[in-house]
Specification:
four-stranded mixed sheet; 13 strands
């Protein structure tokens, strides 16, 4: 069949963009990398928890046996791979061999107006391609699978296949890794060690074993061989692609998202996940903080398997074994019961202690099925934990108040402070848009049924603002959105009318009533004081006191997310 002029133009467009990206990303042939563009975030703050650095076990300048940095630094990683152009050329060749046919087909669908019709097939191909490209791209796909601000629902559903469909590496390699890292033969350490992994993920896999010295059953997490080299190389490639693609995106669209900052946030998080010592310390800190700060009821229903630091290194982690079933695989009534616990624990992490699990995919939330902890909620995998400063936590609470009271100017101030909007945003243009987009989510907002008005729907509607006003997603917010979207997705299986915003309302109220910061006082004053009558609003005060005791009106499910009256 002869190629049509339209097909030819689409192929040429895709090829031209790839060629420009490759040329820019492989320039210099061994000369030092000079990134042309930097993140718009001045003095970009890291939100990724680095517990091992605080413990003193990780020198920021430390390298592995091959000379690769052990702590994420885009410049140090670039300097390492600049000295090995042959390795990069081979990776580029492999990457282009897989991605070029997909990109050209995407442009063909786009230019033919067939993108919507071809979306499912394109998404399926993309999943296959990401799997072939290896752990970095699998992880990227997993991140994108719960990013409704980046991808449409059909593509997100297809990418969700990446959560569980990971091919394991050979057990012989895993056993060798354990012996090398712990410095002793497997048979000296364990009286039994499963012949096959019980779980496999993009960066590691887990074996079931029994400690020889104590007879205790444990989980042994083993990193994929060569993971640091593969991941660092791919992150270097992705960063150079971002250096090229961001100006191209801005040349042809009005999108102001800082993709370089998004790339660096993803890269830092992924790199940190390769340090299992850091993961173990995150788990210990999380357990201690939740025991101290969560409600007694929620803390009593929580299990975080204890890591054994004496048997944990950067590439191997040994922790207590827990028999559990994924929350998402439980009957509806059991999901509903444990989601209430998970919700309380997550809100405590986010708003109370500012230390939250950044990767709570369904495989990391279990119901314990036997032993003294049977029936409790088990949280796993603390490789990616984010820290949120007190100021940002207070602004998040403030934004809920401003939304509930329809104080649009205050809400815009919150969005500016959180990095969603620039300070020079035209408020006269934005306020009517916020009223149109967010008004239906409030009590009396004109929505007859809120059954489909969940966090995902709210996120999608917020993104329509970008059609009229430049609206950016700060990189750290992507970690938060990922956690909220995952928890809500599981909760909706147990209760199709579940709304995480309205269910979080009692927690927000307790936070306001117990916090003595100036910002909390200002929010309380705004809620309870009526400037027109110069008196307190007694109905709101009563509603808040009820909410502080955990009462949420069922009417919220039919009338809106937030109702302070």
């Amino acid at each position: 069949r002869r190629i049509s002029p339209l097909e030819r133009s689409s192929l040429e467009a895709g090829a031209a963009l790839l060629e420009e990206a490759v040329q820019a990303s492989s320039q210099g042939g061994g000369s030092p990398t000079q990134f042309r563009y930097q993140s718009q975030e001045k003095n970009r703050q890291s939100y990724v928890s680095q517990q091992s650095a605080g413990e003193g076990v990780t020198d920021p300048d430390a390298v592995d046996e091959d000379g690769l940095p052990l702590v994420y630094s885009v410049d140090r990683i670039a300097r390492f791979w600049d000295t090995q152009p042959g390795e990069l050329a081979a990776r580029w060749s492999f990457f282009l061999g897989i991605s070029t046919p997909f990109v050209t087909r995407f442009f063909y669908s786009l230019l033919n107006g067939r993108l919507e019709a071809d979306e499912a097939d394109l998404a399926s191909t993309a999943v296959d391609n990401l799997t072939r490209l290896g752990p970095t791209f699998v992880k990227l796909g997993q991140v994108l699978s719960i990013r409704p601000d980046v991808l449409p629902p059909v593509t997100m559903r297809e990418l969700a296949r990446l959560q569980d469909n990971i091919r394991p590496f050979a057990t012989e390699e895993a056993r060798a890794m354990v012996e090398r890292e712990l410095g002793r033969p497997i048979d000296e350490l364990f009286s039994s060690f499963s012949s096959e992994p019980v779980a496999a993920a993009s960066l590691a896999q887990v074996y079931r074993a029994v400690l020889r010295e104590t007879g205790e059953e444990v989980a042994v997490k083993v990193q994929r061989p060569g993971a640091l080299g593969t991941v660092s190389k791919d992150l270097y490639v992705l960063r150079r692609l971002a250096d090229v693609s961001q100006p191209l995106i801005r040349r042809f669209t009005s999108d102001e998202t800082d993709y370089i900052a998004l790339t660096e946030t993803f890269a830092e998080g992924l790199y940190t996940e390769l340090d299992f010592r850091n993961e173990a310390l995150n788990a210990l800190r999380m357990e201690a903080l939740l025991r101290e700060r969560a409600t007694a009821e929620a803390a009593a229903r929580l299990v975080i398997p204890e890591p054994l630091l004496a048997l944990t290194t950067r590439r191997v982690m040994v922790s207590r074994w827990v028999n559990g079933v994924k929350l998402s695989a439980l009957p509806q009534d059991e999901i509903k019961e444990l989601v209430a616990v998970g919700q309380e624990l997550f809100l405590t992490q986010l708003l109370e202690i500012g230390f939250f699990h950044g990767d709570p995919h369904p495989g990391n939330l279990l119901k314990v099925v036997d032993g003294p902890d049977a029936g409790k909620l088990c949280l796993l995998d603390f490789g990616l934990v984010a820290e949120v400063p007190v100021a940002d936590r207070n602004i998040i609470v403030s934004s809920v108040v401003h939304l509930g009271t329809q104080n649009w100017d205050g809400l815009i101030d919150d969005f500016v402070a959180l990095g969603f909007l620039s300070s020079d945003t035209d408020r006269s243009t934005l306020i009517p848009i916020l009223q149109r987009v967010l008004g239906p989510y409030l009590k009396g907002g004109g929505v007859n049924s809120m059954r489909n008005a969940n966090f995902q729907a709210l996120t999608q509607d917020l993104l329509t603002i970008n059609l009229d006003v430049r609206f950016s997603i700060p990189p750290y917010v992507s970690l938060l959105a990922r956690s909220v979207a995952t928890l809500e997705g599981i909760a909706l299986q147990g209760d199709p009318q579940y709304q995480i915003v309205s269910q979080a309302y009692p927690f927000v109220v307790r936070k306001l009533l117990s916090n003595d910061s100036r910002q909390s006082f200002s929010s309380l004053r705004e809620l309870l004081y009526d400037p027109a009558t110069q008196r307190l609003r007694p109905q709101r005060l009563a509603t808040m006191l009820q909410a502080s005791l955990g009462v949420v009106a069922d009417a919220n499910k039919a009338a809106g997310f937030i109702d302070f009256d």
